[in-house]
Amino acid sequence: MFDTLILILDSTVRLSAPLLLACLAGLYSERSGVVDIGLEGKMLGAAFGAGAVAYLTANAWLGLLAGTGVAVGLALVHGFASITNRGNQIVSGVAINFLALGLTALLGQTWFRQGGRTPSLSGGGRFGNIELPFAAEMAHVPVIGPIYSELISGHNILVYIAFAMVPLTWWILFRTRFGLRLRAVGENPAAVDTAGISVTWLRYRAVIACGILCGIAGSYLSIAQSSGFIKDMTAGRGYIALAALIFAKWKPGNAMWACLLFGFLDALAIRLQGQEIPGIGQVPVQFFQALPYILTVILLAGFIGKAIPPKASGVPYLKERT
Amino acid sequence: MTGTPAIELRKINKRFGSVHANKDIDLVVGKGSIHGIIGENGAGKSTLMSILYGFYQADSGDILVDGKKVAVPDSKTAISLGIGMVHQHFMLVDNFTVLENVVLGAEGAALLSGGVSKARKELARLESDYGLKVDPDALIEDLPVGLQQRVEILKALFRGADILILDEPTGVLTPAEADHLFRILEVLRDQGKTVLLITHKLREIMAITDTVSVMRRGEMVATRKTSETSMAELAELMVGRSVLLQVEKQPAKPGKTVMKVDSLDVIDSRGVKVVKDVSFEVRAGEIVGIAGVSGNGQSELLETLAGIRKASKGTLWIDGDQTNLGETRIDPAEMRGKGLGHVPEDRHRMGLITKFAEYENAILGYHNDPKYAKGPFLDIPAIKQTAKAEIEKYDIRPPNCQLKTANFSGGNQQKVVLAREIEHDPTVLLVGQPTRGVDIGAIEFIHKRLVELRDAGKGILLVSVELDEIRSLADRVLVMFDGKIVGERGPEADEGELGLLMAGVEGDAR
């Protein structure tokens, strides 16, 4: 039983990592007042870019760089539409999702002729798992041993980056000048403008930060978790991350717990697939897949506290005429 | 005033599209003084100050600070020139602490800790120097507006402002808070700061300023030493003596009472009582004018009677039909059903949907009338017929009912609204600022139509900030000040006397 739990928690960590990265990406963007429904598209674009370049160069780090580059590029498109041209942020985000979905499949097929996949990666093209020191020695210690050697040790570098981003993001938001301004611009951009700070540049920086994290999240999928890009491999994770962001009330610490919860549900679904639960019978996988959304809707309906988004999120900034 | 002025503006011009918000503005503000700028809403005061603060760019003209010609391309430059501004709508982040708001944009270094502890010390110093006490760790949203405003002042002082601009600072304050603010401003002046106070309230100008400049319709019309002027003179300068348009009309033959308002109170969204115990009646065949400097509750009164705003207390009779407005909220459609027409003050915001065609606008609010409907569908030919008839009767140009109303001139837009309301045969017509932004020709036409409507035995309630309009149209003039009706006069009343009433200097019905 304990071993099963450890196994489920272990895959929870693996499944949560990309959600967490995407969720934090959304956090930067939305805290600055730019709603980003395009997390999904940016992740997908990054997954493809990373898969393709990692295959061509057989270097995971170059793959990560490429994936991040693609996501930042798409983020800048979103920024140009919604910050510079004050367009509708939802429309721009949805457009990016469709663009990424279609373009990755098309380019994948054109370049690699494997039905939209990128060729399988091996060796240096992937991020391997890292054994933390003394993992093997610790494995036999009761309780703490398996937790350390199975749960904490043995993940790839991006997982550790994802979880390290949580305190880092908190620190940036609440302890630095950039963070103060970022939070301010998402609440009242006019206050930032009258303080003599450029709203546009600030929001662009937030959107770029969002792109970088989405890039890592997408790369994780294709060159760390799997060994290559598969068509539509994000499979709605961008939307789950967005749900997690709302669930987390736009706070970094909460974001981690929300993503772990959603990752846990995912892990449970995989574990329970085709298995009878005593007294209940077989629970369809779809139930677990729907749970994150159901929980978010319940949250939004006000049953679990209140989720108040940054006041200016989704609103393009325009100096009003008196 | 001696020495170099703190600020000098020369020939400032600013246009927003077709609106000339600032025309050749000259202004000299002496160092260490409190200089008031007074004018009605829309006179261009806030625009001028936003130009000085770098929020907008002037189309032409020079700005001199401390005698040196400067360019103010953005607020950052204004701040570095020692100009601070307290905006009418506070530029604060509600869920930040006082301290965070104060340091925003002036953090010092990339990490917050140093700047924040410096700001904490600085706030303590400002508190002891100027008596500006506020808890640095309180969240803005938990503070009353008076303290929020104090945070705005602290923000400016923290940035080293020597010149402080306050835009309508007392609009959101209680009288006690306003008095406190004035004491703070006096302390600031005595410590050598220059204060620019923008307001439309005469009382404040008289109470606190050393010098006052009057703006009207985008122009700077006069500058006076406060000690050498009077409220009556300023009121007259503000409202202005535009071309007196004499309206030909017979003496009114008032009939039975068609509208009666009793003890009406209105509280606005900020919780401020804006209409206070207002009672009056309008009879058939007369025009009752409500005069007053804008912002004294006339707009709210009109909106409440039209059903747009909720009253907290009061009774309304329309043609004998009684409604307790404090208990039941009547929506605008029901008000129309009772025989009330409404020409709103702001035709763009409430009178028209400018993106809609003229014929669609011609039935807005009356679209449920069976005349225009075939079951659930609109009877477009019937609507267009109505629209065409109105275009002809009211000489609306261009005579094309398919055109979006956005493409009509101000005067013709106003005629569209007026035609719609008059042609649906109201018992009482509420008219707000009927000729604001309307050319002379249309003004004459609109005035004539209103007199005709009166002669047809309808009651008209006219709210206007143009004193001349009130005097030439109304058969009785009620003056509103600070939410109350402070006096009633005949249309022949002396302009100076009305000016004093409008300024709240003397009232006979308080």
UniProtKB/TrEMBL annotation, chain A:
Keyword Cell membrane tagged: yes
Localisation per UniProt entry: Cell membrane
Membrane topology annotation: Multi-pass membrane protein
Domain of life: Bacteria
Transmembrane segments: 64-83, 90-112, 157-174, 206-223, 255-274, 286-304
Pfam families attached to this UniProt entry: BPD_transp_2
Major place of residence: membrane
InterPro entries from the UniProt entry: ABC_transp_permease (IPR001851)
Protein name in UniProt: ABC transporter permease
Organism: Roseibium litorale
Automatic annotation (TrEMBL), chain B:
UniProt KW Ion transport keyword: no
Transmembrane segments: none
Alphabetized GO MF terms: ATP binding
Annotated ranges, domain ABC transporter: 7-242, 259-507
Superkingdom of the organism of origin: Bacteria
Annotated Gene3D superfamilies: P-loop containing nucleotide triphosphate hydrolases
One Pfam family it belongs to: ABC_tran
Similarity remark: Belongs to the ABC transporter superfamily.
Protein name: ABC transporter ATP-binding protein
